[in-house]
Amino acid sequence: MKIAVIGGGYAGMAAAVALADRGIAVSVFESARQLGGRARGVAYHDTLLDNGQHLLLGCYRQTLRMIEKVGGNPEEDFLRLTLQLDLHGEFSLIAPRLPAPFHLLVALLRAKGLTMSARLSAVRFMLILRRMNFRLPDDMTVAEMLAQHGQGEDLAMKLWEPLCIAALNTPVHKASAQVLLNVLRDALNKSRADSDMLLPRISLTELFPQRAADYVEQHGGIMHIGCGVEALRPLEDCIEITTVLGTEKFSQVICATPPVVAAKLLRPLAALAETVTQIECLEHQPIYTVYMQYPAHVALPQPMLGLHQRYSQWLFDKGRIAGQHGLLAAVISAEGIHQELSQEKLAQHVIAELREEFGIAEQPQWYKVIAEKRATFCCSPNLQRPPQRTPLPRLLLAGDYTAGDYPATLEGAVMSGLECADAVVMQPGKNSRTG
Ligand SMILES: Cc1cc2nc3c(=O)[nH]c(=O)nc-3n(C[C@H](O)[C@H](O)[C@H](O)COP(=O)(O)OP(=O)(O)OC[C@H]3O[C@@H](n4cnc5c(N)ncnc54)[C@H](O)[C@@H]3O)c2cc1C
To answer: Which of 24, 26, 129, 366 minimizes the number of CB atoms within 10 Å of its CB?
Structure first.
């Protein structure tokens, strides 16, 4: 077997590691000069940033397992925080050291910034969700679900909306309630550590994709960096791919590019017309990150905290997280009025918010806005996502947008890559993950 993986993001590198691990010859083709895709390190002014601040959850088991497999150590690579949501001065919730789900129920009961009746209605809602096994008979928007379960406006705005946007990168009136429940089921319901919030201390490229590339090469695989795939041609007993290096034949190909590129590569293949239509129907949502380098003594009260009804949704103190003192990041997820502003205006708003909320009087030495316009797919109800197996048995699809329980996340991407690696080594039709 000779397998090609197209794309060196988390999905492609998870597939490549899983194949290399089984002694299968794998060649990875990555068009950029750097690995990581939508989760990559970015060098700016001698400082290592990421293309966006990422947060992982303790329940991202496959991602954490893969990081360990390639030599990482989650206890060192992340700052681990117990579940806490703090909207500066407006709302705060912190999970006590109790077994799940009591940690959450007690956290909700003790939450600050909500009336007792709102707290009780949040607890009742969680108990109902547990009884329903976090499964809805029919999918709907998160806004509809919240209304059906009497989650009043204040509770929705302070708790559920920030959670939904952070988890699904989709506003509540467009977001799939079922996908949100899938995340809540895995994060809140099993063990307390599943709801821990993990903030990377090293760049997203170093965290997994670069280590994965070293692992693949040590296991006999080949990494082609800066070498994009231009075309795919299925032949009788192989697939031929074209790059600047020429053409090469592979017994199977895993296409792990972002959805827009996948649609472009697959469009000429008549057998995949339906798959291409599914991919083209996906809408996208942006994520903006504003990095600001302040003098080293400037810090936030906590490594991560949110703001209520401001441009900055979540703020991260990279000094507290990764020893990058004075470096702050403001994250603005999903669509919104911030998209109408120039990057300079947006940064000025964020800087003003930091001054008003925390009394940070200094101006940053520099700021950098990273706008990822197609950060994730828009996770709407009943979305038809293309499966990893395509009508062409030699061609598989990996990526956060492919079929799965999760929204566009590192865990969704990694799981799709592992699914493809399983499919490569298995008889068609069998599925080792679901038995
Ligand atoms: C700003 C931002 C913040 C985010 N925050 C979080 C978060 O907090 N938690 C979380 O879990 N997820 C988060 N995500 C989502 C997460 O980053 C993605 O779900 C994940 O990185 C997707 O991985 P992927 O491998 O599916 O795709 P990608 O990362 O897009 O990888 C695809 C790769 O294919 C390469 N490629 C493209 N065309 C070609 C070609 N022709 N030939 C070869 N290679 C090609 C690309 O360069 C890229 O490296 C965030 C995303 C963004 C953008």
So the answer is: 366
